[in-house]
Amino acid sequence: MERTIYVHNLYVKKKRGKKVKEIKSMQEDLLELITKLLSQDKKLRKQTYDYKKQILYLNKSSYKKEDNILVLQFISAKYAMVRNVLDTETLNDKGQLKTKKDGDEEKTHIGIKFTGKHSAICLYENNPNGISFSIIMSYLNDFILEQHKLCQDNYYYKIEHNNKVSKDFLKALKYADRIKAVTLTVDQEDLKVSEIKRFSGKNDIKRDIDILLKPAARGKSITKNTVKDFFKMFEDEKSDIKKIYVDADKQDKTPLKFDTEQMKERENVNVLETVTGEADPNDIKKILFGLLKEY
Fold it and tell me: Contact at 8 Å (CB) between 183 and 213?
C-alpha cells in the first residue's frame, strides 16, 4: 500500500515572561518528557477531541541516539459513528456491532531528527483514517506545558512547526508576470497591533491571522524579489510567518495562484500491509528512520 510522508520543520518558541527560561536542548527535554508520558497509564495519556469525535494517545517510542532520531507511534479512534454492518458479498445485514463509545483503532507515526539545540526535521505519516499533524503537535505541546508547570522550573515553551516547502514554490514564481497580492499568515500572538492583540486567546476566533499585501499603486506588481524575501523569512525558524499565498497572473493573463501549504515537501512510499489492511507499523518505522538519515 502507499503512504504519503509530509516534511515539517520544528523549532522551539519560548513563552513570554520575565522569569521564563530557555531550555538547553529540545532533544533532551522532549526525550525526558516522552519517557514520563509513556510511564503513565493509557487512560492518563489519552486526550479527547470532542469537536472531532476522536481520542488520541501516545503508544510507543523508538530512539536511535547515534542518529538523533526519535520515532513516535500514536493511536487514535473516531467514536460516535454507529452504522449497520453489511456483508459486502451477500449484502446480509449484521446489525450494529459497535456502540457510540467504540472506535476503530488507527496508528499514525511521526519521526523527528534533531538538527540543532532548538530545531528538528519531522516526518509525518499521513494516515487518512488517523489523526492530523496539527492535533499531534497540540497533544505534545499540552503535555510539555503541563509537565513544566508541575516542575515549576520556568521552562515554558511550545514546539512550533511549518511545512518544509519544495522548490516548486520558487519554480511557480518564475511563471508569474504580475503579482497582484501576497497573503502572509501569522499567529495572533506575533502581531504587534494592540487592538488586535486584545482578541488573542478568544475561543471563537481562529488563532491564525491573514495579512493581505497589495502593490504600492494600482496596476503595479509586487516584485518577485519581495516574494523571495518573504520565502526566506518563512524558512527561518525564528520567523512569525506560517504560510505564504501568492495571487498572480501569467504573461498571457491567465490566473496563477499558489502557496506554501499546497507545495509542501512530501515523499510517497510503499509500505507493507497487515492482515487487517493497515500499514505495517514496523515497516513504517523502518522507512521513517531511513528517510530521516538523509536529512
Answer: yes
The whole-angstrom separation of Cα 233 and Cα 231 is 5
Q: Which long-range contacts (CB under 8 A, 24 or more apart) does 145-154 make?
A: 147/33, 147/36, 153/21, 154/19, 154/20, 154/21
256 Cβ contact list (under 8 Å, min separation 6): 172, 175, 176, 246, 248, 249, 250
Length of the chain: 295
Residue 257 bridge partners (DSSP): 247
Give the count of alpha carbons within 13 A of 170, CB side only: 13
Q: Mind listing the pLDDT tens digit for each residue in 6-16? A: 999 999 998 88
* Cβ neighbours, 10 Å, residue 120: 26
Helix (H) or strand (E) holding 72: strand 69-78
Q: Rounded CA gap, 216 and 221, in Å?
A: 8
| CB contact at 8 A, 161 and 132 | no
Q: In angstroms, rounded to a whole number, what is the distance separating the alpha carbons of residues 240 and 185?
A: 9
Q: What is the CA 191 to chain-centroid distance, rounded?
A: 21
As a whole number of angstroms, the distance between CA 281 and CA 253 comes to: 48
- pLDDT interval class at 257 (50, 70, 90): very high
For 177-218, the DSSP string reads SEEEEEEEEEEGGG---HHHHTTTT-TTS-SEEEEEE--SST
